[in-house]
Amino acid sequence: MRVLLWYWGRRGGGAQFALCLARGLMERPDVSLALSVSREGDLVREFQALGVPCDSVPTYRNALGFALGFARVRGLARRLRRQAQLFGADVVLSAMPHLWTPLVAPALRRAGIPFVPILHDGLPHPGDPAIAWHWRLRRELAAARGAVTLSAAVEDVIRAQAPGLPLFRLPLGAHLPGEAPRGALSGTAVSHDFLFFGRIRAYKGLDLLRDAFAQLRQTHPAATLRVVGEGDIEAAAPGLSALPGVTVEPRWVADDAIPALVASARAVVLPYREASQSGVLPIALACGVPVVATPVGGLAEQLRDGETGLLAAAPTAGALAAAMARLLEDKALYASLAEGARRHGAELMDWGAQAQTLLDGIRPWVRPGSGAKVATSGTGASA
């Protein structure tokens, strides 16, 4: 199968997901891979170093660049279509939606090129910007031959919006940059009991975690919590940083620093009020770190309750505090959860298997070998 992997995002978990998926696709002997990535992306050099045809297109780095870039979108749509035709792509696979995807994807459909998006979300998260969200999603789905979702929660939403569209669910792997640090697997690197890591957003329940941790400290006065993420933590959870035992670090974490950060905790805590799925959860498991999470959205299917972590009985502060206390009190349970996390995390790190599962899922929607090349002397792509 000839796959053109399309990712125009710039940084964060989406970039690592796309890079890991590209590497996994390269492992499959029946796959020829080409890439279309953002020239401004933090991982553009890593994509280029893979040694496959790679077109690095100009996108943007900030809001001004986004606004000015609209003048280039039509040309970029032609550029992507041309690359797919020259490569003879059987499918253009979008690793993650981009703000320009709904303006570009219809050109693929008009050219008869199968387009398959991997949809990380079905609805905007509460509190997140949602300008033209539904219009963008409808345009993307209308251009798609089929779509891939990463959780049942997202699949249900997409099925309701596009009843006739073929869907395939792919469990989210661990997009971990490099190998898990040894300290994570031995426990020698642990400096905090619990870690919350990720961008600070309203739906992630920092206020719920604040109240849960305050309750936990009443019975476990030595418990510690580390909160690391880009955003206004005080706005999301007023008073959290003032609680005894809490360390707050409002900052962006570079990809290569993530494994050591995760390894610094006995457990990762996800107090979300709503979730499509979590990219942090499989990373924690890959590092052998159990997870405590609220039973919302895709978290309930990602986390194997009692095997790789603990699901709170309800998305409430009391239930979350009880789950955190249980992990601290029961040493045999913790050891079992850590072993389960290591075992399942190793599976989630196998991106070759992840890629094969994806290909098996989308193969019925495309006809390998049907990609039509255009006779031309140019390449249409830059390495």
UniProtKB/TrEMBL annotation:
SUPFAM superfamilies in UniProt: UDP-Glycosyltransferase/glycogen phosphorylase
Record's keyword terms, sorted: Glycosyltransferase, Transferase
Residue ranges constituting the Glycosyltransferase subfamily 4-like N-terminal domain according to the UniProt record: 12-160
Any Pfam family: Glyco_transf_4
Superkingdom field: Bacteria
UniProt KW Transferase keyword: yes
Record has Zinc as a keyword: no
UniProt name for this protein: Glycosyltransferase
Source organism (scientific name): Teichococcus aerophilus
